[in-house]
Amino acid sequence: MYFTRQSDFHILSAATERIYPKDENGPGAVQLGAPYFIDHQLAGDYGKNEREYMQGPFISGTEYQGYQTPLRRHEIFMVGIRAIEEESKSNYDSSFVDLEGEKQDEVLKNSRMMKLN
Q1: What is the DSSP letter of 47?
Q2: Which residue in 13, 36, 67, 75 has the most C-beta neighbors within 10 A?
Q3: Distance CA 108, CA 83 (A)
Q4: 90: Cβ–Cβ under 8 A, 6 or more apart, which residues?
């Protein structure tokens, strides 16, 4: 629905599975359809922030005010997905989806520190 590049969807799928993996308690994110749910949400009003005030000014707020950015949710996800892939290729010379689980965890930890502009 939203993701036009399969590679972006695969990165999203791998990242959600690392965050919510299949284990002895039940299925993981992929088996539960979380990547498809996110894809559909980003394609709709939620991903476009249709019901939210999105006019400036966008100033740095306090940690209690949440993020202040002109980016829509679907744009934020793309920034994150691209950051994950860039971090993976930079540190491991490999795509995120091809990394072992522990290396994927490191990439996720490092890329979450990036700041949204």
Answers
A1: T
A2: 13
A3: 9
A4: none
